[in-house]
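Hi R.,

Here's the chain you asked about this morning:
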Amino acid sequence: MNGLDLRALEIFRAVATEGSILKAAQKLSRVQSNVSTRVRLLEEQLGIELFERRNRGLTLTAEGRLLLSYAEQLHELSAETVEALKDGRPRGTFRLGTMESAAAARLPAILSNYHAAYPEVQFELQTATAGALIDRLLDYEIEAAIVAEPVNLARIETMPVFREKLVLVAPRSFPPLRRITEISGKTMVAFEEGCAYRRFLHEWLLENGIVPGGVLVVNSYLAILACVTAGTGFAVVPRAVLDVVSMDGQFRFYNLPGKLSRITTFLAWRSNHTSARLEAFKAMLPRL
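And the predicted structure, written out as tokens:
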């Protein structure tokens, strides 16, 4: 079999990213029939189906997901090559994944300084749970990620950048807690499974014999704090998040003991990857 056409891989990558032939054609400034033909020829060359055709669009097959991971690697290597052959100045698109807490409380000033220093870099910021971010990093969907400990993977390198202090927040409608264990039986408001802080919270609840009355899953810290202030239940959040929201007096907060009082946040990247964008970003982050 002849080698794969790199342009065909870029067209395939666009279709996979956009989820439709039409959107990919618009993004690539090509006619729709051309994009459709190139994808079909690529499937014929490989002897596999890359997409499942459905009424609402295209979904990658298992083989398509595998090819996409290689296409992302080749795209990244191409960008690195262009960067290296120029003056080495950071440029291009920097896809950074981060937990929402870091996006809200830690990154705004850093990203502002980075943009001022390197205006040729376009940031794509993606927020998700720590577990989802590691998956995206390993799948070449993002270049680096800001995640909470622990990160123990052979293909990942890390550097510590922030320390977070977790606090328990409870509604004003709850009586003051003489002991934090009094929250047993109350509803817990939290992110979905995969959130590093939720994992730490579960461990702490188990160690202290605390059994929540139920779990309400939401997808942002603003939503978490709004639910707490409404009296829905309790939550555990980084103290840095409380410092950037205006909800003073609407809930009570309590410092948590032990390891929850000092959680390390890391910048993570693939061990086989480097770029001027990433190195410049690492230089702007605090070192612990």
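The two ends are 51 Å apart (CA to CA).

Let me know if you need anything else.
M.
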